[in-house]
Automatic annotation (TrEMBL):
Domain named GPI inositol-deacylase transmembrane: residues: 788-1107
Function: Involved in inositol deacylation of GPI-anchored proteins which plays important roles in the quality control and ER-associated degradation of GPI-anchored proteins.
The protein's name in its UniProt record: GPI inositol-deacylase
Organism: Paracoccidioides brasiliensis
Oxidoreductase keyword on record: no
GO cellular component: endoplasmic reticulum membrane
Homology family: Belongs to the GPI inositol-deacylase family.
Membrane topology of the entry: Multi-pass membrane protein
Main subcellular location: endoplasmic reticulum
Matches recorded under InterPro entries: AB_hydrolase_fold (IPR029058), PGAP1-ab_dom-like (IPR012908), PGAP1/BST1 (IPR039529), PGAP1_TMD (IPR056824)
Transmembrane segments: 114-139, 783-802, 823-844, 882-913, 951-976, 996-1022, 1065-1083
Length: 1142
């Protein structure tokens, strides 16, 4: 029974003559096609046989190979002997019997591309719920509060026009500016006022040099208001800071490795030019007694920090011209995106150089020995760069740098987003003050020695409670002689706590002495907390804390050696004299926690806190807390020696229990002021928690302060403070995915610790409750795994294409993308994700076993590089934690949903465009009759024209435009092909046309998902054109990287269906798609740029399959160039079924 052509009244009872051109050239048999196709250029078959048009076909029920195939031809040529080839010829006759082959084909009868099975719909809904749950969690839950104030400034930018093409080849693209604050900095056109220490600010990806104005303004104001009037600092070599700013013209270095290298080369040339300005003997204000500067301080924001580190690896780097680098929100550990090969390669070279330098045993072999690097991160509020990537633990030892979060920095105590970290008022004050403390113009390097610089940075950027924090007390000499009455009752008994609720009760200074426990007492620690500012020795404040020893310290010591005398004996003849030291340098500021406190960054005076281990007080017998108030005044102070057995709680709870029952701790009523809870199991950055602190009734006495909580980890240095705490959101930047291991392989993960300051005078118990916040944890996947959602769907697409080609080579029907996806959901995809989950579990297990067997290596050992594998977290989930195996099926479900949504969105777009095209064609004045005659996308182009166009485009790729631009053009052309084939298939209702449409549609889906890899580099190229920078990038002009895609798209525009492969060669197609799928799963996140090249190989194979059955040869190519086609076809006929309107 013959199928009738719908919509064609004249074809109800008579067969049609068809041309095997569009959508069937070199492809499957044209069955169920009773329409006349548009004129095409015929091609020779693989056997050398020439096909002519039209062909008489017997229509039958199903398409596909038939037994007893016969061919009718109108050519006068002799048909050669039939040769069996691996590619199926496209001309078949109807089947005369119901063979097993036909029964097998019936199972794959064409379904509508719009069809959606219940399974696919269910997974899509589940995917949407998971995806939007993650996004909603990221935007609404576990959000760190931010409290940045906007500073005010009056900027002036002086462009250094002398830094021209004579000094750098980038003079026309980049610029160099000097910042001057109006009404503060003195400068003229002849004298720009270079009288300080040079500092160069480097903006980040698409950033502006103006982002450095906040720091520069604060430097000018602070020098005018403070440093200029401090003669001691001026004598110590402190001078103003001359802020220079590099203008990278908003270049996008994060997306393009060559741009990053260009910027680093430019910065080295800028450094040489800046230093030359100071070496000018005619420079006004030049001090002849001071050495000329030989180095510049670098401050980098975002990718500017990577440029700063790259500077030291470049061939044009001038030795020792940089010794201090401060970076803000800079992704040091790994590139933020891996879409460009040059970016990944540059990162590998830079990080390898730094690791190799610090692996040297001797300083003479380390070119970075005098360099200090500080990385500052904004925390969870940074939605551009994951703050995990700012870690230096895999690059720099603790002697040369560290990573710290803004929420840790004293008097800042707030998280920041990617932009506000460059202008936040409280943060910029800390940065500038730290820079003034490391400046020393008496040295040619303009800075203090490396060890001194590191001490300054630790003082300004760390809390003072870290294990690496340095104490000034042991290095100080006594300065104060404290004289007391012999019968004073102000000496507390051993172990007694000092609590003062008010000052000045006696209307005279009064000292309270706490005896220091004898040395050898295990775990003893001194802590003091007050709401007052602790006064320096000799000051006029209300409170002073002294650490004292009995005077004389040694025989022969004279009172004249002590500069200050504090006599509290009241003129008594019998008195005790103590030699004391002040502790002002070791004061730790803590955010005030009262009933009115809301955030740590509230604009209220901070608490003052002192903390010493017993070994730090080995020289002292007493701690003197001196109330110097002469009138009654408010205030309080709590001081005590506590035992670690009472103050530290080491939990043994595992992650499983935390996920289930949580952790509940009851603190006893008689406890130290500071209680610390250590939870080693809580170390992953992918989990978030809720911590609840129970109420603390204080009875009759008013509480001194409300509970203050500090959450901290030691690597990187991240602390968060919660004032007046009742409930706290706990999230951290600990062990994160895709992060390289620590430079010290043996460093163990300590997990999170909580420090709780509570009023011990209340004498009431307190409860702590910690539970996993499952909904809040979902949002932590967004920043850590955002690139997974770009790579893993490619696995699904590759498997779907493999299934489509497998069925097509077997049956001759190229099923729709949705149908193939439905088939994959029932078998291959579950197996693939199950295998990947097993692989992830195996990798985590094997890694943990290896870690347990490894010895500890010192960072200076030459064996470090050979032992540590810094790429071991590049695979799959990028995590060595076996707990997170479930993320693979979760991401798999989301990826499936993405593919379903993208597929139907593309179909909607194609349908809309084809409708518009049909309407526009009708309006041009054509009347469509009974027999549609669709043509190719470019029917007027001959093979010669197409070859010339392709060759010209390839020449442009090789010389001017990057192949990424050609790829985008190819995607647009492929979309146009999809639009036209969709319209043809809907008009003709032809199975062969539907097969061809499904083919071009699936290829477009593949190309569309690889498109993000190219868009970023294309944006860089467009930006360069906008700034009139014409220098091409050699790495992006590889013709072979785009030629297969161009040839395939060109072939599809001519309506050429890919031939079926009937031999074992069809396994090559499956293998190639499986390789693409495997790579997308294993390395798609870390090395995403290779996804294009693997897809390019797959495309090259498909092009080869197309050409293998097209009769392509040098003779045909010569004929094409001479103006003829690949065969001796007759001119296309134009039938009379279409005519112009009168």
């Amino acid at each position: 029974m013959q199928r009738r052509l719908s919509g064609s009244p004249k074809s109800h009872h008579q067969p049609k003559m068809i041309d095997a051109g569009f959508a069937t050239r070199n492809g499957p048999p044209i069955d169920d096609t009773s329409d006349i196709l548009g004129p095409q250029i015929n091609q020779r078959s693989l056997c050398g046989e020439e096909e002519s048009s039209p062909l008489q076909l017997n229509t039958s029920e199903l398409p596909g190979p038939r037994a007893g195939t016969t061919k009718t031809t109108h050519s006068s040529r002799t048909t050669p002997e039939k040769i069996t080839m691996p590619f199926e010829s496209q001309i078949f006759s109807s089947t005369t019997d119901n063979s097993m082959e036909e029964q097998r084909i019936r199972r794959f009868r064409m379904r509508s591309p719009w069809s959606c099975s219940l399974l696919m719909l269910s997974l899509t809904v589940l995917s949407a719920v998971a995806f939007f749950g993650i996004v909603h969690s990221y935007m609404t839950r576990q959000i760190d509060p931010q409290g940045c104030k906007t500073p005010r400034m009056m900027p002036t930018y002086i462009k250094l026009i002398g830094f021209d093409t004579e000094h750098t080849r980038f003079a026309s693209k980049y610029g160099l500016y000097l910042y001057r604050e109006r009404t503060v900095d003195e400068y003229t056109e002849q004298d720009i006022g270079l009288r300080g220490v040079p500092v160069l600010f480097l903006p980040g990806n698409a950033g502006s040099y103006r982002q450095g104005r906040s720091l520069a303004s604060e430097a000018s104001l602070y020098f005018r208001d403070v440093i200029k009037h401090d003669q001691e600092k001026l004598n110590a070599g402190t001078r103003s800071l001359d802020f220079f700013m590099a203008d990278f013209n908003e270049d996008m270095a994060a997306f393009h490795g060559q741009t990053l290298l260009d910027q680093a080369e430019y910065v080295n040339e800028a450094l040489a030019y800046i230093l030359s300005l100071y070496h000018d003997p005619k420079r006004p204000g030049r001090d002849q007694n001071l050495p000329d500067p030989s180095s510049v301080i670098l401050i980098g924001h975002s990718m500017g920090g990577i440029v700063a580190r790259t500077v030291l690896t470049m061939s044009n780097y001038q030795a020792n011209s940089v010794n201090t680098i401060i970076t803000m929100s800079t992704p040091h550990a790994r590139p933020p995106v891996s879409f460009d090969a040059d970016v990944v390669r540059t990162y590998k070279q830079i990080n390898g150089y730094w690791r190799e330098a610090y692996s040297q045993k001797w300083a003479n072999n380390n070119p970075l020995w005098h360099v200090t690097l500080i990385s500052i991160a904004g925390g969870g509020g940074d939605s551009i760069v994951p703050s995990d990537y700012t870690s230096l633990s895999s690059l720099v030892p603790a002697t040369h740098g560290f990573t710290v979060f803004t929420s840790t920095i004293p008097n800042v105590w707030t998280g920041m987003d990617h932009l506000s970290i460059a202008w936040c008022d409280s943060f910029r004050q800390v940065i500038i003050r730290s820079l003034f403390d490391i400046v020393d113009v008496r040295r040619s390097s303009q800075t203090k020695q490396r060890a001194e610089r590191m001490s300054v940075f630790k003082k300004w950027y760390l809390t003072g409670m870290e294990t690496i924090a340095e104490r000034a007390l042991p290095q100080k000499d006594p300065t104060t002689l404290l004289t007391l009455e012999d019968n004073t009752n102000s000496i507390l008994s051993q172990g007694q706590r000092l609590v003062l609720r008010n000052f000045g009760k006696r209307k005279a200074p009064e000292a309270h002495l706490l005896p220091v426990p004898p040395q050898g007492a295990p775990g003893k620690k001194f802590t003091l907390l007050t709401d007052q500012i602790i006064d320096a020795p000799g000051g006029n404040g209300k409170l002073e804390v002294l650490f004292c020893s009995v005077f004389p310290l040694q025989a022969g010591h004279s009172v004249s050696l002590l500069s200050l005398n504090m006599d509290l004996s009241g003129g008594s003849s019998g008195s005790t004299r103590l030699a004391c030291k002040g502790a002002v340098e070791d004061i730790i500021n803590l955010p005030a926690s009262t009933r009115s406190s809301k955030f740590a960054f509230d604009d209220t005076p901070p608490f003052s806190y002192l903390q010493y281990d017993l070994q730090d007080l080995v020289e002292h017998q007493f701690v003197a807390v001196v109330d110097k108030a002469t009138m009654p005044s408010s205030g309080w102070v709590v001081a005590e020696f506590s035992d670690s057995s009472d103050a530290v709680i080491q939990t043994r709870v595992g992650l499983g229990r935390l996920l289930g029952a949580g952790l509940n701790i009851r603190l006893p009523a008689e406890r130290p002021m500071l209680t610390e809870v250590k939870i080693p199991a809580l170390h992953s950055s992918l989990l978030a928690y809720k911590l609840r602190v129970g109420k603390q009734p204080c009875g009759e006495s008013a509480e001194l302060f409300t509970p203050l909580l500090r959450q901290y980890i030691s690597e990187p240095y991240e602390s968060k403070y919660f004032v007046n705490v009742k409930e706290a959101d706990i999230n951290l930047h600990g062990v994160a995915p895709y992060m390289p291991p620590h430079l010290l392989e043996g460093n163990s993960v300590c997990g999170v610790s909580f420090q709780l300051w509570s009023d011990p005078s209340c004498h009431t118990s307190m409860e702590l409750s910690l539970h996993v916040d499952f909904l809040g944890s979902m949002g932590k996947l967004t920043m850590r795994y955002r690139t997974v959602f770009a790579a893993l769907p490619l696995l699904v697409i590759a498997l779907v294409l493999e299934k489509q080609f497998q069925i097509y080579d077997t049956t001759g029907v190229f099923i729709p993308f949705s149908e193939a996806l439905d088939l994959c959901l029932r078998f291959s995809l579950p197996i693939v994700f199950l295998v990947l989950s097993f692989v992830a579990t195996s990798l985590a297990t094997s890694s943990s076993r290896v870690d347990n067997k490894k010895d500890l290596y010192d960072w200076r050992s030459n064996a470090t590089e050979s032992v540590i594998d810094f790429t071991r977290n590049d695979l799959l989930l990028g995590s060595q934690d076996i707990f997170f195996w479930f993320l693979i099926p979760l991401f798999g479900i989301i990826s499936i949903g993405f593919c379903v949504v993208v597929n139907y969105v593309v179909m909607v777009v194609i349908y809309a465009l084809s409708t518009i095209r049909r309407v526009l064609t009708t309006r041009r004045g054509y009347i469509k009759h009974d027999d549609p005659r669709p043509t190719a996308i470019y029917p007027s182009l001959s093979p010669r024209q197409r070859i010339i166009n392709t060759a010209v485009l390839l020449c442009f790729v090789a010389t001017i435009i990057p192949y990424q631009f050609a790829y985008i053009v190819a995607c647009i052309v492929q979309l146009a092909t999809c639009v036209q084939t969709s319209q043809f298939a809907n008009e003709t209702k032809s199975t062969s046309h539907y097969s061809f449409y499904n083919y071009v549609h699936s290829i477009f889906i593949l190309m569309l998902w690889i498109l993000p890899v190219h868009v970023l580099v294309f944006a860089v190229w467009v930006h360069n054109l906008a700034v009139h920078w014409w220098t091409p990038f050699p790495s992006h002009h590889n013709v072979l990287s785009i030629m297969p895609f161009m040839l395939l798209v060109e072939t599809l525009t001519n309506g050429n269906m890919i031939p079926r492969i009937t031999s074992r060669l069809r396994l090559i197609t499956s293998i190639l798609f499986l390789i693409l799928a495997a790579y997308a799963a294993l390395y798609g996140v870390t090395y995403a740029y290779l996804l294009h090249h693997i897809a390019n190989i797959v495309t090259a194979w498909l092009v080869g399959v197309h050409f293998s059955n097209s009769g392509f040869s040098l003779r045909n190519l010569n004929q094409a160039l001479e103006g003829s086609g690949f065969g001796d076809d007759e001119p296309p006929k134009v039938d009379g079924h279409v005519k112009k309107l009168p």
